[in-house]
Design goal:
The complex is a heterodimer. By secondary structure, chain A is mostly helical. Chain A is about 60% helix and about 0% strand. Chain A has 13 helices and no strands. Chain A is elongated, with a radius of gyration of 32 Å. By secondary structure, chain B is α+β, with helices and mostly antiparallel strands. Chain B contains three helices and eleven strands. In chain B, strand 5 and strand 6 form a beta hairpin. The chains are: A mainly alpha, B alpha+beta.
Chain lengths: ~325, ~220
């Protein structure tokens, strides 16, 4: 291979000059580089690869996604002093939603949204399908759990004053999420098509109809006609599993983005701390200790000067 | 002193001059819109049109049932001899096709009564759908009243509200006699004075200003 002139190669790509060549002091190589490493057996090499493979995969993904910065910022974000168990209600609601989404997808594999077959398909899920009763039960009770949790979460936000500036938009999104959750509960109630769901839906649709001027048309829209008919059930099913979940997922994303972006609030009973006395930059540079908060070392009461004296060594 | 020097060097005291922008390519004297702007607006309008072409038919498809009226159905419910003036007979008939038992409706049918000053020779078919929120009411023979199990609505013999939360009398069905058989037809609602109006959903008032607040729906049949 012909030698490429150093002058035409961009500086970062240039080969480092060999020790002892012109302009580079001849320095003995470190001792570690002289001793040849122990030979690894084939098995050891494979083991090494197996250990490194997950990290390499993650690194490969991260080089292309560039997500590590965002994920670190999100997962290791600061939370205010006083954060307590009440702050988990939002995550709990999200968890309930995920349970509903997963069990719902699998229920849809066995359910028939037809007025003549819906009841028997639910009976089939409950009586014949292995674990059918469990999955159906999780979906049924999970719905109530989600409604309860979303109200508790809303109450926490209200009583902690967490809806105030700059989080009003997140409150508004949360209210829309509440309405969508109630829509899910309402449309899902009809699907088993037993006596209870039939009459509850009749009553619910008629309550919609009592709104002046638009109410009667809203009822017709929900029923797909003047009476509960053949397409009412499919309409409810489509709203329940396609229309509203899409909106829910999108708005949950926006809701959580704002939570991470704006941070959470401290509980209302937390007192504001007095600000610490400011330390002039000149003193910081000189390494003068003040207030015990200078750097990592001073926290341990050990002050190391010199090369090894940075914060990392004291941990 | 240093600050003053900087001021002088930056010429902060001098008034700012508008920098003259070079005319964009294709510019001509008196143009009202640059080419870039015209293309931006044009492509946005095209995108809007394409979006509307997708969204509008889909929405129309979803709301179409509001404007659709089904076929008029008449169901035989029994020979004329079955029905008397002083009490009701419960009949079950299909109101909506294709959904099995869920499409069945119940009506309480009797002959029109001279005592109550009703039009003679016709048959009265009272719907069992409560005018409160649509639960099924039952005619209680001993009391001569219709009673709703859900929220305690009570109606008299003619279906007028006498207690509980309902907002109007019970709905009725049109009736006719064909070949000695009583037939039940489309549903209609009544005002408090029992004059027929187009069918309303339960919970909606009838008569007076309510006719405008709860407008008649195109999916229902005209009142007899």
């Amino acid at each position: 291979m012909p030698k490429i002139l150093d002058t035409i190669v961009p500086a970062p790509l240039r080969k480092p000059a060999k020790p002892g060549s012109e302009g580079v002091p001849k320095d003995p190589a470190p001792k570690d580089l002289k001793t040849s490493p122990e030979r690894q057996t084939e098995y050891q090499k494979l083991g090494q690869k197996a250990v490194e493979a997950p990290m390499e995969t993650v690194a490969w993904l991260d080089q292309r996604l560039g997500a590590s910065g965002f994920l670190t910022g999100m997962l290791f974000r600061k939370v205010p002093k006083g954060t307590n168990w009440f702050y988990t209600l939002g995550s709990a609601t999200l968890f309930a939603f995920i349970v509903q989404a997963i069990t719902g997808v699998f229920l849809a594999m066995f359910y028939t949204p037809s007025a003549t077959q819906a009841y028997s398909s639910i009976a089939h899920i409950n009586n014949d399908v292995p674990l059918g009763q469990l999955v159906h039960g999780m979906h049924k009770w999970g719905a109530s759990v989600m409604v309860i949790l979303i109200f508790l979460h809303m109450g926490r936000t209200f009583f902690f004053g967490a809806y105030k500036y700059p989080r009003e938009l997140n409150w508004v999104i949360g209210v829309v999420l509440l309405i969508l959750t109630m829509t899910m509960a309402f449309t899902g109630y009809l699907l088993p098509f037993d006596q209870r769901s039939y009459w509850a839906s009749i009553v619910g649709i008629n309550i919609n109809g009592t709104g002046p001027i638009v109410g009667p048309y809203l009822s017709d829209f929900l029923r797909a006609g003047p009476e509960l008919g053949a397409t009412t059930l499919s309409r409810f099913y489509a709203i329940h599993m396609l229309l509203v979940p899409g909106a829910l997922i999108a708005l949950i994303g926006a809701h959580m983005y704002l939570v991470v972006k704006l941070g959470t609030t401290a509980p209302p009973w937390t007192k504001a701390e007095k600000p610490k006395v400011a330390i002039p930059v000149a003193q910081l540079d000189a390494g003068v200790e003040s207030n015990g908060r200078m750097n990592g070392n001073s926290a341990n009461g050990v002050h190391v000067n010199g090369a090894g004296g940075n914060g990392a060594t004291s941990a | 002193m240093a600050a003053d020097d900087a001021k002088e060097m930056n010429g902060a005291e001098e008034p700012r001059r508008e920098r003259e922008q070079p005319a964009p390519p294709g510019y001509f004297e008196g143009e009202s819109m640059t080419r870039r702007r015209a293309l931006t607006v044009g492509s946005q309008a095209l995108g809007g049109l394409a979006g509307a072409a997708i969204i509008l038919p889909a929405i129309g498809f979803a709301v179409a049932p509001i404007f659709h009226r089904g076929k008029e159905r008449w169901e035989k419910v029994g020979p004329v001899s079955d029905f008397v003036e002083d009490t009701y007979r419960q009949v079950v008939f299909t109101e909506t096709e294709g959904i099995g038992d869920a499409g069945k409706a119940i009506a309480y049918v009797r002959k029109s009564s001279q005592e109550l000053e009703e039009e003679p020779g016709i048959y009265v078919a009272v719907s069992n759908r409560c005018a409160h929120l649509g639960c099924p009411v039952r005619f209680v023979e001993a009391a001569g009243n219709f009673i709703c199990p859900c929220h305690g609505g009570v109606y008299d013999f003619q279906g007028k509200r006498i207690g509980g939360p309902p907002v109007r009398p019970l709905d009725r069905f049109q009736t006719r006699v064909r070949d000695g058989q009583v037939e039940v037809g489309p549903r209609y609602s009544v005002t408090n004075s029992l004059s027929p109006v187009r069918a309303r959903d339960p919970g909606e008032f009838t008569g007076g200003v309510w006719e405008y607040l709860y407008p008649p729906r195109p999916s229902t049949f005209p009142a007899p």
